[in-house]
Amino acid sequence: MSRIGKRPIPLPGGVQITQGVGEITVKGPKGSLTKPISPEMRITVSDGVLTVERPSDSKEHRSLHGLTRTIVANMVEGVTNGFSRTLEVHGVGYRSGLSGENLTLSVGFSHGIEIAPPPGIVFEAGQEQQTRLPFVVIRGLDKELVGQTAAQIRRLRKPEPYKGKGIRYRGEQVRRKAGKSGKAGAKGGK
């Protein structure tokens, strides 16, 4: 049995599950999410607990069992509490801000970058009080979309290993390298 797939999902109050052919819809206090799932997986709700069952022990069904359970659990968590991802902007002169709903970044290019949020995503920008470090918060109901949006923003200026400048996830450790270490006072002669 799949250890992840057989775990029940407790449903908080106000969360409704609707299953169609090949998709599931979860409605909650923060909104509604619809995702495609395998039509072979059976989803049952009883006494405020949702369980996912597989039809057989074939390799395909075993792999889909845990995946389906995780997708549904993330949907329930998303419509109840939502998801967020925080990015830090490291570098002298690097800034982040909001222009209406759009995120504006100044990260060392000759021009500023403006990013429109995809549907279901909200940006927040600010500065840490103690360190004056700019940060960006990406919020949304869909865990996959929040993570994908954060990855696309980080990809604009990945943290570089020599000075550590760039956009990184909060708590991410950047492996630093030593720079060039030439001989002191050498003039390039013989």
**Superfamily (CATH H level) name of the largest domain:** Ribosomal protein L6
Estimate the mean pLDDT confidence. 90
Q: Count every helix, treating DSSP H or I runs of 4 or more residues as helices.
A: 2
Q: What would CATH call the architecture of the largest domain?
A: Alpha-Beta Complex
Q: How would you describe this protein?
A:
By secondary structure, the protein is an alpha+beta fold. The protein folds into 2 domains: 9-80, Outer Surface Protein A, domain 3; 83-169, Alpha-Beta Complex (Outer Surface Protein A, domain 3), CATH 3.90.930.12. It is 18% helix and 36% strand. It is built from 2 helices and 13 strands. It has a 4-stranded antiparallel sheet, covered by helices on one side. A 3-stranded antiparallel sheet has the order 1-6-5. The radius of gyration is 23 Å and the shape is elongated. The relative contact order is 0.14.
How would you summarize the topology of this molecule?
Layout: E1 9-10, E2 16-20, E3 23-28, E4 31-36, E5 42-46, E6 49-53, H1 59-80, E7 83-90, E8 95-99, E9 102-106, E10 113-115, E11 121-127, E12 134-140, H2 143-155, E13 166-169
In short:
The protein has 190 residues and is of the alpha+beta class.
Quick tags:
2 domains; 3-stranded antiparallel β-sheet; Outer Surface Protein A, domain 3; 190 residues; 2 helices; alpha+beta
